[in-house]
Amino acid sequence: MTFTKNKNAEALGITNKYKRKYRVVEGNGDFKKGEIITLKRDDDSDCPWFWKEDKSGYYSIYWYRLEYAPKGFSKLGLSIGDIIVREDGDEANVLEVFENGFMKSYWYNFDDASAYYTFKEAIKEGWKIKGEEEEDEVKELTVKEISEKLGYEVKIIKE
């Protein structure tokens, strides 16, 4: 899920922004779709500065062109028998895990080997591990802070 247009990191509720990795979902002249990038400098705009994956340079890109990078595609995060889910919902089985990648089955044929993929390729393809939940960060706000963000007074009622 991409971020909302015309909002900065604070308005988007992004915390730990310098520790996170982001995936480009809509490329620009500097970043390609699927590239994994990290925040270099947040200037409180909706278009801060990000490092390229290999730190060879940094450029600005709008938040709405990004999403959180999926977690789990590493030797420690992937196990034989895990199910990989493609963005269209198709599923495949992890048949073997290697140092830098894994062997997967065909989509919806969990027994026969299809191909070897690196972890980097899987992340760029947008694949996720079935059952892996996105970590929703909870942001605590007072009623006054909520009112300020919404632009009108908020009253708490019992349900």
Oligomer: single chain
- Mean pLDDT across all amino acids: 85
Largest sheet: 5 strands, antiparallel
Shape annotation: globular
Given as residue ranges, the uncertain stretches (5+ residues, pLDDT < 50) are none
* Discrete helix count: 3
Structural class: alpha+beta
Number of strands: 10
Tell me the domain tally.
2
The strand order across the widest sheet is: 4-3-2-1-5
User: Radius of gyration from the CA trace?
Assistant: 19 Å
Q: Topology as H/E string?
A: HEEEEEEEEEHEH
Intertermini distance: 30 Å
What is the helix fraction of residues, given as a range?
10-25%
Please report which band the strand proportion falls in: under 5%, 5-15%, 15-25%, 25-35%, 35-45% or over 45%: 25-35%
Can you put this structure into words, describing what you see?
With 159 residues, the protein is an alpha+beta fold. It has two domains: 9-68, SH3 type barrels; 70-159, no CATH class. Helix content is 12%, strand content 29%. The strands form two sheets. The protein has a five-stranded antiparallel β-sheet with strand order 4-3-2-1-5, with no helix packed on it. A hairpin with a 2-residue loop joins strand 8 and strand 9. The longest helix is centred in the C-terminal third of the chain and has 8 residues, at 143-150. The mean pLDDT is 85.
Descriptive key words:
159 residues, alpha+beta, SH3 type barrels, 2 domains, five-stranded antiparallel sheet, 3 helices, 29% strand
Short description:
The chain has 159 residues and is an alpha+beta fold. 12% of the residues lie in helices and 29% in strands. It has two domains: 9-68, SH3 type barrels (Roll); 70-159, no CATH class.
